[in-house]
Amino acid sequence: MPEFAALTVLTDEVFGTVSPRLYGHFAEHLGRCCYDGIWVGRGSPIPNWNGFRLDVLNALKAMPTPLLRWPGGCYADHYHWRDGIGPSRPVRLGMSCGLQVEDDNGLGTHEFLDYCKQIGAEAYLAGNMGSGSVQEMCDWLEYCNASVQTELVKERTSNGHAEPYGVKLWGVGNENWGCGGHYDADSYGLEYRRYATMLQHVDPNAELVTCGHNKEWNERLMDKLRHHAFLVDHFSIHRYWVTGGSGTAFSDEQYYKLLREADETEDFVKETRAIIQDAVGDKKKIGIALDEWGVWHPEVRQWGEDAVGGDLNNYEQACTLRDALAACAAFEGFHRQADSLSMANIAQIVNVLQAPIRTEGDAMWLTPTYHAFAMHEPHLGGQAVRVLVEGGLSLPDGSPAVTATATTKDSRKAVTVMNRHLHEGATVRIPVEGSAKLLASDRASDENGPDSPDRVVLREVGLTPDGNGWVLELPPHSVATIA
Ligand code: AHR
Fold this sequence. Notes:
This protein has helices at residues 54-61, 109-119, 134-145, 151-158, 185-202, 215-225, 252-280, 321-336, 368-375; strands at residues 5-17, 24-26, 48-49, 52-53, 67-70, 92-96, 99-103, 122-127, 169-172, 207-211, 234-241, 287-295, 341-347, 357-360, 363-366, 383-390, 402-409, 412-419, 426-430, 435-439, 458-462, 464-465, 470-474, 478-482. The chain is of the alpha/beta class. A 10-stranded mixed sheet has the order 21-20-24-18-17-16-1-19-23-22, with helices on one face. Bound molecules: alpha-L-arabinofuranose (AHR). Alpha-L-arabinofuranose binds next to loops.
C-alpha cells in the first residue's frame, strides 16, 4: 500500500446533478435565529436593509444560500400568515420547541420574500396544518402567487407587491408526527391529500412537500399516498446528529462517532428512497427533502443521548471545526444521492443549532460550517461523479481516513477531500491541478467567536507536482477543495 492516498475521478460514473437546492438553509422563528439573527427591525442602530442586518445579509450573499425555508419548524404549525402582512401587525405568542416569545410579526411574508430575492435564495414556505386550515394555506398560496385580480391579490398589491412572488416550494405542515399535531401516519396521509388537492387547484405549479419521519411512518404514509403520488413532489425527512457528546469537550471516540452519524444520513436517504420507490415505482418522481439536518449538541437538548436537560435554552451551541467536518461528510453523501435528494436545509441559518453565522449585539462572525458551505460552492450545479480513493491512512475502525467527492461542470472538475483522522496528517495525490482552499485548525474543537472570528478560516494552499499528479498535504481533521 502506498503511504499516500491516491484519488481518481471517475468522470463516467455519474451520480446525478448537484442541485443548488442541496445547499439550502432554514430560518425559524426560534430563539435568536430570525429575530436578532437575520432581522433587527428598521429602527435598529445595527446597520440594516429594510430591517435585516446588513452584516449577515452580505455574509449570506457570499456563501451558497440558494434556498431558504421559513418560518419553521415547529413554529410553522402555529403561524398565521395574515399576522405578518400589512401596516398593522398583532403581537402573538411565538411558539416552537418549548420556547415562547413575544412575536411582533415585524418579519412577515413580504419581508421574507424580498429578503430571499436580495440574498439570491429561492423561498420555501412551510404551511400551517397543526393550527391552521386548508383555506388558510390556500389563501397564502393565492396571496403569494396568483395573478388574477382577486381580493387577496389586490391586498398584496396594496402591500407593495403587484407582481406574483411565484413561490414554488410549499411544505404541508412540519413534523406532524410530533409538534405538528401528533398525527398518526394514516390520518396525516388523508389530511395531506385534502390539503394538497386544494393547493394544486390554486397553483398547479407549486411543488408540495409531504411530511415524513422514520421508517414505520414513511411506509404507512406512502401506503396512503401510493394512488395519489401526483399530489406529492417532495418527501420531507429530518436528521439531527446527536451521538457526538459535548459540543467542545468530546473524546476521540465521540469525534469519530459524530462523523459516522453524519455519514449515516445517506443510509436514511437511501432507505426513504426505497420506500417511495416501492409505493409509487416510476409513476412519479418524488424527491427527498432533507429539510432539517445538522448537529444538535447535548448542551442544548433535553432528549436523546447525553442530553443535559435542565432549563429550556435558546438553542445556541458551540459550532466547531468538527461540526463543519460532519457537514462535509454529509455533503459527500448528498452528492452520491443527488438523484434522490431534491433539497437539503441545514438547521439553522443564524445563531440556532449548527449555524453558519453567529451574532451578538453588533458583532457578527462566521462559524467553520460557513466555510464548509463556501468551499463547496464550485460543486453547485455540477455532475457528481464517483471518486476512487486508494491507499492512505485508516481510522481506528479500519475505514479510510481520506474520503472525497467530485463534480464536473463543462470541462472543469472540482474535488473536495477530507482527512478525517483526528491526529495524523495525510498526503493525498489529486488528479486536478490548481490550488486548494483548506479548512483546518490545531484542534477539531476549535471555533470562532466575537473576539477570535478568524481562528478557523479558509486558507489557500498550493499543490506540489510529483510527476503523476499533484500532491496535497492535509493536516489532521481537515478538508480542502481543489477547483
Ligand atoms: O430546528 C429545531 C426544531 O427541530 C424544528 O422546529 C423542528 O422541526 C425540529 O424538531
